[in-house]
Amino acid sequence: MFELFSKKKKTIEKLKKRWGRIPQQEYTTDQLQALKYYYSKHVDSANDVDDITWNDLDMDSFYILINNTCSSMGEECLYSMLRKPYFDSATQQERDRVMEYIDANEEKRLELMYILASIGKVKAISLYEYINRLGSIEPENSLKHILMNLLYPVSILFLFLNPAIGLLLLIATISYSVFTYFSGKAKIDSYYSVIVTIMRTLKAAEKLEKIHIPELQEYQNAIKTSAKKLKTFNKGGFVVAAMKGGNIADLMLDYFRILTHTDLILFYRMLRIYREEIQALNNLYETFGFLDSMIACASFRRILSCWSKPELIETKKQPFLEIDSVYHPMIDNAVSNSIRTTKSVLLTGSNASGKSTFIKTVAINAILSQTINTAICKSYRASFFRIASSMALTDNLLGNESYYIVEIKSLKRILDRSDEDIPMLCFIDEVLRGTNTLERIAASSTILANLSRNHCICFAATHDLELTSILEEHYQNYHFQEQITEGDVLFDYKLYDGRSNSRNAIKLLGVLGYPEDIILKSQVACELFQTEGTWKKV
């Protein structure tokens, strides 16, 4: 008993130290892929953060930064939560209420974390996938195992009546038992870890029931109701789940299982209960996962130097966005910026001046505001938005598609998702960069104008200064700027009103040490085109 108490105390101390700190767990590509399975079964293609947007914004990195969960259920539910923005105040308020309670009540929080940690995490697989894959196993009739076990007393009886026959029968029974045991166990061996996790989940439900938390009673009741439907699942479970150890007791239990098939019989009994109550198990999964996710999100707030609760408003006619001092939390000494707009926004400025980082920062804040009610800025006030981007695109070599084809398909999906039901907030970096200048400006101006009219606020970054004039009725112009000194380029990463008037690309050649004749010829060619509209042959 003392040993158990000491172990619990040590675990709680570790959990206490984790709270409010950057998670240290690293994830492989395969592990991240496994975490997506739960979300893949709950996709809402019209409203979710789609794959293109998720990858554009490097949201995997944000997920890792937030993921201070204690269980596999929490990990997978948190990932799904970040991909599924809400569009109602009730969901927003409830998530914030739970996070506020968790943050303010350390003792109860640590109890919850301890219970969730007792469920644990499975590595490199999706727990949700394996739980639901159990349903693909057809339960075997245990009669053959039971009849085989009846042969043991029969063999022993024959040992007294006819020792020779009795001995042969006993040897044959043992041989058949060993052979059929290992062949039967091979079919289900990969699912034992899932069975163990389900058992731990039901034990966690028992522990949670003993804690008095009126503020979370709704979730406790949901867990209690679901666990009750699975109450017989754990019966005899220690025989199924017992791990091989080095002591005599473990060895004897292992021999017992081989000879009697008790673990196989119990496994298929558990499987039948599972198949009857799969919905109850999924409810347990989602409720525990939600609580674990909320703990992680509350902890995430603690690591931020500046954050706020967003004010989100349902609007249909005129969407708006107001952000004060927004910054990117993964950039050291990040420069903050503010913006207020009811129109789409066109961003100009040179490379590396901050355009892409700014629109990514706004997009990330929009997602976090509508998923975990946390904005990384002094204040965030906006409409509820669908959120989509078209930024970090590449050629699709496997699909035999050029960059331009990939790009116009990406933009088309944004146009298709824009409607008057829910406003769209979209982010486009260097629209139609994959084609020639003439057609790029003609097509991009038309596409961007269409987006701005269609119940949408679009943030678009471009080097085509012509667009600032063409779209000035539909877009507010903002820019980033730089200073070129002798041998250096200085950026302040601040957002300025109006369009960029600087053309410093050729000057930057000089800063980087290009030959002077290249620089001079480039300047002459540029000036000729500006005055005469033609390019000088080289």
Explain what this protein looks like in three dimensions.
The protein is of the alpha/beta class. It has 4 domains: 2-126 and 178-303, MutS, DNA mismatch repair protein, Chain A, domain 3 (Orthogonal Bundle); 143-173, no CATH class; 311-499, 3-Layer(aba) Sandwich (Rossmann fold); 503-538, no CATH class. It is built from 23 helices and 12 strands. It has helices at residues 2-18, 29-35, 37-40, 51-56, 59-66, 72-82, 89-104, 106-119, 127-133, 143-161, 163-188, 192-209, 217-229, 237-241, 248-260, 262-276, 278-303, 355-369, 403-417, 437-453, 466-470, 505-511, 516-532; strands at 311-313, 321-326, 337-341, 344-348, 379-383, 386-390, 424-429, 456-461, 475-479, 482-485, 488-491, 496-497. The strands form 3 sheets. It has a 6-stranded mixed β-sheet with strand order 6-7-8-4-9-12, sandwiched between helices. The chain has a 4-stranded mixed β-sheet with strand order 1-5-2-3, covered by helices on one side. Helix 20 links the parallel strand 7 and strand 8 (456-461). Helix 8 (106-119) packs across helix 17 (278-303), helix 10 runs antiparallel to helix 11 and helix 13 (217-229) runs antiparallel to helix 17 (278-303). The longest helix is centred in the N-terminal third of the chain and has 26 residues, at 163-188. The model has no long low-confidence stretch (mean pLDDT 87).
**How many distinct domains?**
4
Relative helix content: 55-70%
pLDDT < 50 stretches: none
Distance between the termini: 87 Å
Strand content range = 5-15%
CATH class of the largest domain: Mainly Alpha
Q: In the CATH hierarchy, what is the architecture of the largest domain at level 2?
A: Orthogonal Bundle
Count of alpha/pi helices: 23
Number of strands: 12
Widest sheet, order of strands: 6-7-8-4-9-12
Major β-sheet profile: 6 strands, mixed
Q: What's the shape?
A: elongated
**Global Rg:** 31 Å
Structural class by secondary-structure content: alpha/beta
The CATH topology of the largest domain turns out to be MutS, DNA mismatch repair protein, Chain A, domain 3
Mean pLDDT across all residues, rounded?
87
